[in-house]
Design goal:
The protein is an alpha/beta fold and about 625 residues long. The chain contains 21 helices and 21 strands. It folds into three domains: about 160 residues, Nucleotidyltransferase, domain 5, CATH 3.30.420.40; about 150 residues, Nucleotidyltransferase, domain 5 (2-Layer Sandwich); about 230 residues, Carbamoyltransferase, C-terminal domain (DHBP synthase), CATH 3.90.870.
Length: about 625
């Protein structure tokens, strides 16, 4: 009988479930995609049900359920931290302790109760009969990075906010063994340092870090010296100690305090208020410090292990600018980054750790990696989509694949914005061509249009280019694949546009309207781009569309951004996609073989019978 291992992450942010069957990654999805609650931290009921359905099994077929961290160790850290900082943090302590005492310290009972509820919901007479295990948080991250990678052996680096005690860990993977040999401990954390600046710049912690990274090229690193002098003591090996006088996160309900405000010239920016030069300079400064720390850590691990390959995971591994510098300037020949590098990926890593570490089963690396392009979430058949369209009485057209590609490529060439919905949803925070909004990268206006009229987000945020894998090196200084949009690379000189002397003198957001290349909508103000290379083997539909666009225009690049609006998860179902399409200024929606023209749709109105009947209100 096959061995089924269910990995779960929950109760902090980005809850998820992943199913590994005989060592093969069968399914993985974040709970937010199903619950429609951004960064949903709750027990991943929907994600577990999906994994069971995708695997064609029931709970009684699960041999091991593994949670991605160890609650008793985390409780120990929280308790010791409160004691160390007492009496500071009393309010936070009183708020958090009841939850721990009632629920989190007795997690096995909570899990068994939740699983019993899932069995009842699925109409199963038999529930979970397997064994519940717990993996350490950073081991889960490390396993998610090493085991799916294409390497026979590699150094492994995980960097995030905090797990139980560890905030950074490094080790070596070889064959089916993975050993972590060094750690940094809370409260000294690169992830929390970056989040503190995210908070101070007026963005939301655990989701606004992307904004801070995108804002950085608009500013100057004027605070870098101040950060090194006052906030952290950085060593040559990348380890550091933070000056905790300036931070509130160990026991408070906010990240920074008054000392931080004094240091950086005033209170934190109020959310939704205008972004000023200070925030731009702060973003640039902490980004450069983060990159330097990442480079020092990588050099140290390389010196200690002698390995040629590096695997990365943890939330900081989503800093694709830092990853790009690691690739170009670091000591490793090859780098592989887990696409679900944050807590969601911990569910997958925990499951893989049981298969290889706990059960001692053989590991067989595959070319590329074993993530299947990270297309591991739910899919919807042609029949499912057509049933949805008919039930809503929607106007649509069904096209053969060749005609679909020609039609969509032509619409993009005409400056239209397309919602693109195909196959299985992506696992991780990036849309990789199955739940994407796409457009023409050659348009100087497209970045602003898509940010303000489609995504409803800050105008300064850059978009990513999806480029044919075989043409990537023609447009970007990148000599390898980047399938998961986790590497930033410079646009090649031949595609750049020289700026005028007047344009060079612009500052901040004024730089946004200056075209930097012949693909300006995906070229950031520093001539960089967050590249996704698209393979014919991994995603043939998306590859065909880009190829059709290239045949029409000569350009093998499309804008690819996630199919959602600000504050909402990436769409999962045809219903989610249709609602997002109708509530934005997208022009066309493609659901599998079906094309919907916005101009032919009835406006959404909650009093329409067909909407309330189908749940579209």
């Amino acid at each position: 009988m096959p061995v089924n291992i269910l990995g779960i992450s929950a109760f902090y942010h980005d809850s998820a479930a992943a199913l590994v069957t005989d060592g093969v990654i069968t399914a993985a999805v974040q709970e937010e995609r199903l619950s429609r609650r951004k960064h949903d931290p709750s027990f991943p009921k929907g994600a577990v049900r999906y994994c069971l359905d995708e695997g064609g099994i029931s709970l009684r077929d699960i041999d091991y359920l593994v949670f991605y961290d160890k609650p008793w160790l985390k409780f120990e850290r929280i308790l010791e931290t409160y004691i160390a900082f007492a009496p500071k943090g009393l309010v936070s302590f009183l708020m958090s302790m009841p939850v721990w005492v009632k629920e989190k310290l007795f997690l096995s009972k909570m899990i068994e109760k939740e699983l019993a509820g899932i069995a009842d919901d699925m109409g199963s007479s038999e529930g979970f009969r397997g064994r519940i295990l717990y993996a350490e948080h950073h081991l889960s991250h490390a396993a998610s990075a090493y085991y799916p990678s294409p390497f026979e052996r590699a150094a492994v680096l995980t960097i995030d906010g905090v797990g139980e005690w560890a905030t950074t860990s490094c080790g070596v993977g070889s064959g089916n063994t993975l050993k972590l040999v060094e750690e940094m401990h809370f409260p000294h954390s690169l992830g929390l340092l970056y989040s503190a600046f995210t908070y101070f710049a007026g963005f939301k912690v655990n989701s606004g870090e992307y904004k801070l990274m995108g804002l950085a090229p608009y500013g100057e690193p004027v605070y870098t010296g101040l950060i090194y002098d006052r906030l952290l003591d950085l060593k040559e090996d990348g380890s550091f100690r933070l000056n905790m006088e300036y931070f509130e996160y160990p026991v408070g309900l906010k990240m920074t305090g008054r000392g931080f405000e004094t240091l950086f010239g005033g209170p934190r920016r109020k959310p939704e208020s205008p972004v000023t030069r200070r925030e731009m300079d702060i973003a640039r400064s902490i980004q450069e410090v983060t990159e330097e720390i990442m480079l020092r850590m990588a050099r140290h691990i390389h010196d200690e292990t002698g390995e040629k390959n590096l695997c990365l995971a943890g939330g900081v591994a989503l800093n694709c600018v830092g990853n790009g510098r690691l690739l170009r300037e670091g000591p490793f020949d090859n780098i592989w980054i887990q696409p679900a590098a944050g807590d969601a990926g911990g569910a997958l890593g925990a499951a893989l750790s049981v298969w290889h570490d706990y059960l001692g089963m053989e590991r067989r690396p595959v070319p590329g990696d074993s993530m299947r392009g990270s297309y591991l979430g739910p899919s919807y058949s042609t029949e499912d989509v057509e049933s949805f369209l008919k039930a809503g009485g929607l106007e649509y057209e069904r096209l053969a694949e060749d005609d679909l590609m020609k039609r969509v490529a032509s619409h993009i060439n005409d400056g239209k914005v397309i919602g693109w919905f195909q196959g299985r949803t992506e696992f991780g925070p990036r849309a990789l061509g199955n739940r994407s909004i796409i457009g023409d990268p050659r348009s100087p206006q497209m970045q602003s249009i898509m940010n303000l009229k489609i995504k409803y987000r800050e105008s300064f945020r850059p978009f990513a280019p999806a480029v044919l894998e075989e043409r990537a090196a023609d447009y970007f200084v990148l000599d390898r694949e980047s399938p998961y949009m986790l590497l930033v690379a410079p646009v090649r000189e031949g595609h750049r546009r020289a700026v005028t002397r007047k344009e060079e003198g612009l500052f901040g957001i004024d730089k946004l309207n200056v075209p930097r290349s012949d693909i300006p909508a995906v070229t950031h103000v520093d001539y960089s781009a967050r590249v996704q290379t698209v393979s014919r083997d991994t995603n043939p539909m998306f590859w065909r569309l880009i190829k059709e666009f290239e045949g029409l225009t000569g350009c093998p690049v499309l804008i690819n951004t996630s199919f959602n609006v600000r504050g909402e998860p990436i769409v999962n179902s045809p219903k989610d996609a249709y609602l997002c399409f109708m509530r934005t200024e997208m022009d066309y929606l493609v659901l599998g073989d079906f094309v919907l023209d916005k101009s032919r749709q009835r406006p959404l109105a909650t009093d329409n019978d067909w909407q309330s009947e189908f749940g579209l209100d």
